[in-house]
Amino acid sequence: MTSEERRERRYLRRKAARDAKRRAKLSEYDDFDRVASLNSLNKAADEAQVGVAWKASVQRYNYTRMLNIYRTHRDLLKGRDIRKGFICFDLMERGKLRHIKSVHFSERVVQKSICRNALYPILTNSLIYDNGASQRGKGTQFALDRMTVHLVRHIHRHGRTGGILLIDFSDYFGQADHAALEKIYRAAFYDDRLRALGLSFIYAFGDIGLGLGSETSQINAVALRSPSDHFAKEVLRIKGYGAYMDDSYLIHEDVEYLRECLEKLREVYARYGIIINEKKTKICDLRHGFTYLKTRFYITDSGHIIKKPCRDAITRERRKLKKQAKLLEAGVLTFENIRTSYASWRGSMSHRDAYRTVKSMDALFNRLFIENWIGGQQITNPKGGQENGKENSKTESGDPGRDQRLQAAPEQHGLPGNQAHRG
Length: 423
Prior knowledge:
- This protein has 423 residues and is an alpha+beta fold.
- It has helices at 3-26, 32-36, 38-48, 56-63, 65-77, 105-123, 140-158, 178-188, 192-203, 215-224, 226-235, 255-271, 311-330, 335-349, 355-374, 393-396, 402-412; strands at 86-93, 96-103, 163-168, 240-244, 247-252, 282-285, 290-292, 295-299, 305-309.
């Protein structure tokens, strides 16, 4: 027996042991009956209606909920097709037109059940730690924090020498290869009925691609890129590697090696039907700064990392506030809706070096929603009178006390708008 044959046998033994250990760990989730059980479907219905319980379709489903769950349970056990097509519509997200294919609520219950009882625990089990998309406890902020950790480690060892390879995919969801996903499913699931159910949600989108609006599409998209993530970490030996959906980065002190990594990754991507966006894929010098997940990173001469919001994000928020002011004037939105939305934006900015940006946006918020509503008018006295004998024009408009709520809202909810009333 040659040395190569011995190494091959050792590899096969280790692989068999790993597969047996993995199967023992995940065997409870590789079970079609667990997904189709009445209890699982009932819990899935509870989770699926969170945030949308006000919709008529959800209320109709809940009116005869137990009967609907029983019918779904029966159809799944008999192997019937529970898909009912899509509800298609378009929306504009951060300046991009998104084509949404939403499923009917009864199908969403099944998707929720298969995701929480099978797809999520099995498919995410083999993901690298630095993949931050569509997982509990992770998200965009996790991905940005991991980027910071990788940059700090690189700076301690190599300073600002080297570069970062930023990779972006072209129409990642729309070009998802069904054959590659089927290969992943066959390796991950042993239950034929469970595998067939999961693949049926993929095939529903046609010959290629995954539709936006289905929960299964999110976890499938994350699993599709997992082999390339392992290749970058384990074969290319890139420690400073991270990924978030269709965005990823590689940090290394040798720029030429990053170019070699890109060519090798192209081959891996091609095997899984992933197409690189050539316009957005580039190698940046660490001394000049770069943009990742709408955040602009700078590294100072002393090695300090500065994270600033992308200029487009600031412009978009300013335009959003101005449009919300018009909707508030028309009565479409309430001040509480706008305040909550703006507080969310301020919360995201708290993780970036954006003090001046936030102060400038606060001034715009005060001008649109505080000063314009109050102006030089006096606020209606809570006891029923009017201060200084002056009438409040907003009170006459049919909403008594509205100005008072607007004046008190910034102080009550931690927004800096109360400066507008001083002096």
